[in-house]
């Protein structure tokens, strides 16, 4: 069973072992590495921000606090699910690195984008005081 998409045909001019081949499929892991370096800290800060956001309503009136609390529950669920989804996408980018390099690059780009859109969704769902 071939390990890489270029192992099917050793005489393929696009194979990394040939003299005139491209290095694309061999270096797909770089996209996953960059995505990991960007996604994990971004997800950490998004999670910390989500966890600390209830402190914004410490000195609110009772009506403002009730509105904030009612909106925080669904927003927290969206935040946790979105960050978990970004972690799954990041792992998928590493899994697809050798077998499907174009998919790995797509997943590597989608992981930090998922964190960003999760944070935007969290911010829009919260009814800030």
Walkthrough of the structure:
Helix 1 packs antiparallel against helix 2. The longest helix has about 40 residues. The protein is about 65% helix and about 0% strand. The radius of gyration is 21 Å and the shape is elongated. It has 3 helices and no strands. It is mainly α.
Report the biggest beta sheet as strand number plus sense, adding barrel if it closes: none
User: What would you report as the Rg, rounded to the nearest angstrom?
Assistant: 21 Å
Contiguous runs where pLDDT drops below 50 for at least 5 residues: 17-21
Q: What structural category characterises the helix and strand content? A: mainly alpha
Tally of separate helices: 3
Number of strands: 0
N- and C-termini, Cα separation: 59 Å
Average pLDDT metric: 85
Could you say which overall geometry the principal axes of the C-alpha atoms support?
Answer: elongated
Q: Roughly what fraction of the amino acids lie in strands?
A: under 5%
Order of helices and strands: HHH
- Amount of helix: 55-70%
Compact overview of the structure:
The chain has 129 residues and is mostly helical. It has three helices and no strands. It starts with 28 loop residues before the first helix and ends with a helix.
Main attributes?
elongated, single chain, mainly alpha, 0% strand, 3 helices, 129 residues, 67% helix
């Amino acid at each position: 069973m071939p390990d890489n998409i270029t192992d099917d045909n050793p005489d393929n001019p696009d194979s990394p072992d040939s003299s005139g081949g491209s290095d694309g499929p061999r270096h797909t892991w770089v996209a996953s590495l960059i995505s990991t370096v960007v996604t994990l800290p971004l997800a950490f800060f998004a999670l910390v921000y989500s966890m600390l956001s209830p402190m914004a309503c410490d000195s609110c009136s009772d009506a403002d606090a009730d509105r904030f609390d009612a909106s925080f529950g669904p927003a927290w669920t969206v935040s946790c699910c979105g960050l978990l989804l970004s972690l799954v996408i990041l792992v998928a980018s590493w899994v697809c690195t050798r077998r499907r390099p174009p998919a790995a690059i797509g997943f590597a780009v989608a992981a930090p984008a998922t964190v960003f859109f999760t944070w935007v969704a969290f911010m829009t769902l919260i009814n800030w005081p």
